[in-house]
Each structure stands twice: as structure tokens, then as C-alpha cells.
Amino acid sequence: MKDLLIPAYNFNLRYAKVLVADVPDHLMTFSPNVGLENHPSFTLGHLVSGAAMTAKYLGGSYDFNPDWETLFKRNGPGDPTLPDPDPSKYPTKGQLLEALVMQHNKVETLIQGLDTPQFQQPINWRFKAYFPTLGDLLTFLCLTHESMHLGQLAAWRRAMKLPSALAKL
């Protein structure tokens, strides 16, 4: 399972970096239209939050800046909170990318330390009906959850008339 998770997880990180590489700082919290409220600053911070939570599920420490909690943590479908458009409330793009790299590296190290049977261990979390094992949870958080939000960021780029980031990989 490691052989599937880690390359795809690393791809997501590379893609996240390319998706925001050419986004000017003043547009990092801009929402071009209804349905595209998850601006780049929110998306990056939310991925940092998800990776920190993943590390916690893997037995690592939950190292997420407490000042970022209200900006980036969401309760999933049905949470009516929209990302704040005020750029002064957000860390810089560089800070967000640095935190994302740090969390990704931590999660990758923790995954590398797992033995094959550990992926089949039952896990208690909100989506356990769909993803009952640690391997299922990792597949969702490292791949599906990240890909969903990176897709939102790709759609945001299209709405902003920016070139394809995927073409740059």
C-alpha cells in the first residue's frame, strides 16, 4: 500500500506547489465567483490542516498552528462557513507552502514506518462506514481529500484565466 500512497501523495504536493506558483499574493484570497469561495490561501491551509490530522491518526503529534484553526478547519459537507476573503488574516503563500511541505514530510515518514498489517487496523472516525481501516483512511485523506481540493484550486485557476498548472508538471 505504501508503494501506491506515497508516490500519489508526493504528486499532490508537487501539483499544489505548481497550482499556486504563478498566483500573485494579492489574488491568494480572491474568489472570482459563487462556488469558487475556496481561494488558494484557504485551500493550502486546509490541506495543511488535513495533513496534520492525518499525522495524528498515524500516532504522530498534531502540529497545527492554533491561530490557523478557525481559518482552515472545516467540518465537511454542511459546514456553512466560507473562507474569509480578507488577505490580512492569512499567512503568506510561502508560509502556507512551507507548512504543507513540513506536514507532508511528516505524514510520509509515518506511513513509511507502518507495517503491512497496520493498514488493515480498524479506525474510528467520522467516515468509518465508508473507510473502516487505517489504509482506507489514508487513501481518503492523502489522495481523495487532497485531490478534491486541488481540483477546486484548478477550477479557481480556470476562472481566473490562468494557464493549466497540470501542463507544467
Short overview:
By secondary structure, this protein is mostly helical. It has helices spanning 2-21, 40-57, 69-72, 93-112, 134-159.
Which properties best describe this structure?
169 residues, globular, 52% helix, mainly alpha, Four Helix Bundle (Hemerythrin (Met), subunit A)
Walk me through what this model shows.
The protein has about 170 residues and is an all-alpha fold. It has a single domain (about 1-169), classed as Four Helix Bundle (Hemerythrin (Met), subunit A), CATH 1.20.120. About 50% of the residues lie in helices and about 0% in strands. It has five helices and no strands. It has helices at about 1-20, 40-55, 70, 95-110, 135-160. The two termini are about 25 Å apart.
Number of helices: 5
Regarding CATH, which class?
A: Mainly Alpha
Proportion of beta-strand residues: under 5%
CATH architecture: Up-down Bundle
Oligomer: single chain
Number of domains: 1
**N→C terminal distance:** 24 Å
